[in-house]
Amino acid sequence: MPENEPEPWEYSLHIPNDPRAVTVCRRTLRLILTLHGLISLVDTAELLAAELVSNAVRHTTGPAALRLRWSGGVLRIGAWDADPEPPDPPLALEQLTCAENGRGLALVRACSDVWGWQPQSRNGNRGKYVWCELAAA
Fold first, then answer.
1. Residue 124 vs residues 57, 61, 67, 82: alpha-carbon distances, Å
2. Which residues lie below 8 Å from residue 121, measured CB to CB, with a gap of 6+?
3. pTM value?
4. Which whole number is the average pLDDT over 91-95?
């Protein structure tokens, strides 16, 4: 690892199925990134985390979690929820202006470097993990 490269780190914030959790996640992410000297990523990361967590809270009934990982100059933002069903595919950009719903993953796709999802199964728990990545400039 280069001398000036920050050490890798990872945080997980477990949240209830409550719309107020989105604000808690955004503010927690802002604090974490600020304390790690990644203020240049805060605005975009906040938007991405809010969309991912909002989907987890809005479209599922169980608990959820925000996960943040920094490694090799890349920030991974992810949201886990207890529903194993895949997320709906993001809308095309030309569909966004007239759509009332479904803009979240389109914003994630447009504002992140890469995004994806994967099913989760661990210790009898099922669910999915939707994530995106931002590279530091």
1. 21, 18, 20, 11
2. 84
3. 0.87
4. 64
